[in-house]
Amino acid sequence: MMRIKKYSRSLILLSSLLFLCSFSNKVEITKMRCEYQVNPIGIDNLSPRFTWSFSSTGAFNQGKYKLCIATDEQSLRNSSSKKGFYWDSKMIGSNKSFATYSGNHRLSPFTTYYWQVIAWDKSGKHRVISPVSSFETAMMNQSDWNAKWITDNKDKDYYPSPMLRKVFTVNNEKISKARLFLSAAAYCKMNLNGKPISDVLLNPGYTHYDKRNLYSVFDVTSLLTSGENVLAAVLGNGFYNEIAPVAPWNFEKARWRNRARMICELHITYADGTKQNINSDNTWKVSTGPYLQNNIYGGDTYDARLEIRDWDKSGFDDSSWEKANEVSSPSPLLVAQNLPPVRIDKEISPVSFISYGDTIFVYNFGINMSGFCRLSVKGERGTKITLRHGEIQKSDGRLETGNIDIYFKPKPGISFQTDTYILDGKDDVFMPNFNYHGFQYVEVHADRPVKLTKESLKAEFFHTSVTPVGKFSCSNELLNKIWKAVNQSYLSNLMSIPTDCPQREKNGWTADAHISSDLGLLNFDGINFYEKWINDFVDNQTAQGRISGIIPSSGWGYDDWIGPVWDAAMFVIPMNLYHYYGDTKGIETIWPVCQKYLEYLAAREDANGTVTYGIGDWVYYNTQTPTDYTTTCYYYMDNLYMSLFAKLLGKDGSKYAQKANSLKLFINKKYFDTQKVLYANGSQAAQGVALYLEIVPKEYEQKVADNLSLMIKNNNNSFDFGMLGSKTVLRMLSKYGYADQAYELASKEDAPSWGNWIKRGLTSLAETWKLSPTFKDASLNHVFLGDVNAWMYNVLAGINYDYNIPGFRHILIQPHFVKGLNWVKAEYNSINGIIRSEWKRTNGSILLNVTIPTNTSATVEVAGKKKELTAGNYQLKF
């Protein structure tokens, strides 16, 4: 029995109802964002998107809205006047809190616009006026750039980093605002008057540098002073200039490879309305100094003896420095970086410290992470100190890198995951600038005696700074640790692209990303991050229609051994953005890429009308699922999704729907044994994939799920699958009545299992189920086996999107009260507001507390029984 109590509002007398509706129901418009950012200052989209949500003490369902944009904030606050309005959308009938600028006038560059939303309920009687929010445009056209790309006069093979400076005079003490527009290939660390312009790292984001470059906009108003000022920059190589062939992905042969370079414009607006621009050009001065080399796989080398005192401040004599070299742009596109920048998440102190005399020290930070370290040290001038980073220790406590350095090719002066500092004899604090590592342990080696303590080294954990939106906890502490470890792995693999691991590869493997996109979007606000990566797909595709297995790529990874299961990222991620945000921009961007790709696959079909090459259920435990089967299944999914894309975009997708149907018929004819009711070779992953992609005929679905459950039970109730199974098996067991069994698998402690990793002390996810006692088998910071995290939200807590009503405007609450759990708590801050689902066992019953955001609705379903809910807080008893 389902009993329900709504407790968000007090009981009232009937005679008081009108008063309550008129005055007591406080409704506010909240979470106002332009391009999914709060008051952004770097918008270069000609048709920016606007979103908002609602907060209320009672019922409110949007029926209409109007969005107004003005160049004068006061005109929006004065509702009786339209003076200063740049655009008025007029009243639009919609329950979606989403709008796109569609005015007749192009947005002007370098302009602050103010916007406001007025929403009405469905009756049209209740009106809500939002606060005034703002956005600021940047370079709206490529022609808006007046600056030049500059670097020094060295060859691309020259190791020391370019250092650039520009002296300029501020003509007026009264500065209204100052914006710095900055891009580099690959990275730029810039100071203004000796102070950092921001706290961002490894900026701008990684792209196909010959196709598109990103620029950032910084508010530097507070850093300017009257009189002489100095802009000073140091450039890093990143993936743009991989000098030595230190890894097998051919970045040293990249078609874009060149000497690190930058472009910037400083726009100063004074209180009297006058403006002053400082542009990068050949009037800048260049030199080199203590930054001896930097390598994205190796590390930074910094010689403090070569520091140039006060070179980034006014008064420095740069007469001996050379003039900057104006160089060509790396690419034809220079676009604003809308994804969140890389920032330090937290500084971590070591949990243990071992000293091997006075020259070797090993630090354990207690958690596997991405980042680098800050070293505080004083030693004899000329002392060389190296910091080697890794994930495991040898039996004697020293650092072991055998599990991650298998791809590294040592070169003179470059060591894998190693930063090098040469002391100048004073108290020094060193931090790298142009690389990151994956590590839990750091071994410090000095070529002369130094004194280090446990406090001498701190780890800086950093990643693309996506905002957390999800929380999960339950009565099983092992599951809580798994959830945390998955998130740690996910964040460690966000560095402006979704990577596979933060140490040995740092590559944007496509399947790793699409398999982990649900857990990513349930835990973090990721739309701008993934939309950036979708643009990387556009830049990655060849004229023939192929894409590579890693994106970006300089040319490596277009081989047949990778294949369609990996390539499916181009379909899965835009579709997920639509489901989670109700936004089709990702689909619009990827549509021509998908068209060309499917044309390419069609040209490679065999006599059965399918393609069969590539990787399938990667890192399987014992049983390999046939690749021809999994590739055909994902070829089906590609065409199915393409037909859905077409419907959303108002295009004709009939040929894709027909192709999907023919592939589905073929799969069931060739790979489905109707007598045994098994797919392919009868592996767990084969059944999971067929059910997950809805390939199984309706009349056989339950029996296929029954057989999946039985084969796991007969395997000592252990799973036997790889990446595809990790995505599908728990979900399908839960969908077809075996949630208890799925929970048992998720919470197992013996191998293979997520729990076994935790039991063995891992704080992030391993690359493979098979690990030796010494962990020397593989990376220990991969995320692609982590969908169990999303399963916790979707199945245990029951928070799910509705395929037919995207963006969580209608929510499916489908919790499973599995045996062995006493309580579950989860929340997801969706685009439309916070969703909560919490249940606990008490006095022989189960109490389920649910929060449904304003302007949304929900269906609660437990054991086949459904209850429709409007917005509010509810308690249900079972």
Give a description of the structure.
With 878 residues, this protein is of the alpha+beta class. The chain has 17 helices and 48 strands. Strands 21, 22, 26, 27, 28, 29, 32, 33, 34 and 35 form a 10-stranded mixed sheet that branches. Strands 1-48-45-44-43-37 form a 6-stranded antiparallel sheet. The longest helix has 23 residues, at 627-649. The chain starts with a strand and ends with a strand.
Quick structural gist:
This protein is of the alpha+beta class.
- Mean pLDDT comes to 95
Unreliable segments of 5+ consecutive residues: 6-23
- Main sheet attributes: strand count, strand direction, barrel closure: 10 strands, mixed
Oligomer: single chain
Shape: globular
Structural class: alpha+beta
Please compute the radius of gyration using only Cα atoms.
Answer: 29 Å
The count of DSSP E runs of length 2 or more, i.e. the number of strands, is: 48
How far is it from the N-terminal to the C-terminal residue, by CA?
6 Å
Fraction of helical residues: 10-25%
SS element count, helices:
17
Strand content: 25-35%
